Amino acid sequence: MMMHARRVLFGAALMGLFASIYLLIVYMSGAPIVCGSGHGCDAVRASEWAFMFGVIPRPLSGVAFYAGFLVLLVLRTAMPSWQTRWLYRLVMVGAAVGFAESLWLTWIQWMRIEAFCLWCLASGAAATVMFIASFGDRPVALSTAASLKELRLQFIAILVAFAVGSVALWGLL
Questions:
Q1: Using CA atoms, how far apart are residues 160 and 88, in angstroms rounded to an integer?
Q2: Largest CB tally within 10 Å, which of 36, 53, 130, 163?
Q3: Do the beta carbons of residue 60 and residue 17 sit within 8 Å?
Q4: What is the band of 138 on the pLDDT scale with cuts at 50, 70, 90?
């Protein structure tokens, strides 16, 4: 169960990272957003909530969050047992913060902007899956053999996500 939770956390973080990277690219380039028929993505991008402090694209915080979470999961897999409890706590706190942020941003879209960005909702769904999966995780260190196997799987997942994500971004842009 624990290993499955860690893999779900990793996969959801990769999905959230993809959505955030796509949004960051279109926010910074001004390219049209591939969105549903309601054009909610354009309404969200045009809102006052799209940029933090008026200049930093909000998707940058998503990229930083998901990339940082992935690094945390890789470190947790590779680290010795004496650091397991601290890294486990960081995963739990990170998942909770990501979930809270996604709830807040969904509320903003619903109540303030009155439009929904499908990419933002996808990022929020990834954060929600991460939050739920974090409850199946445990502060248990992996054996050396299990750690190496898991690191190999994480590396393969990153390579596959990079290849598939690159093709998908090329098609979307």
A1: 26
A2: 130
A3: no
A4: confident
Q: Whole-angstrom Cα distance, residue 89 to residue 70?
A: 15
Would you state the structure tokens that stand for residue 26, as one six-digit string? 């279109």
Tokens 């929020």 -> residue:
124
Q: What is the residue type of 117? A: C
How many residues make up the chain in this entry? 173
For residue 81, the 8-state DSSP code is G
Percent above pLDDT 70 for the chain: 96
pTM above 0.70, yes or no: yes
Residue type, 151: L
Orientation of helix 84-107 relative to helix 118-134, angle to 10°: 150
Contact yes or no for 127/16 (Cβ under 8 A):
yes
Query: Is residue 78 within 8 Å of residue 151, measured between CB atoms?
Result: yes
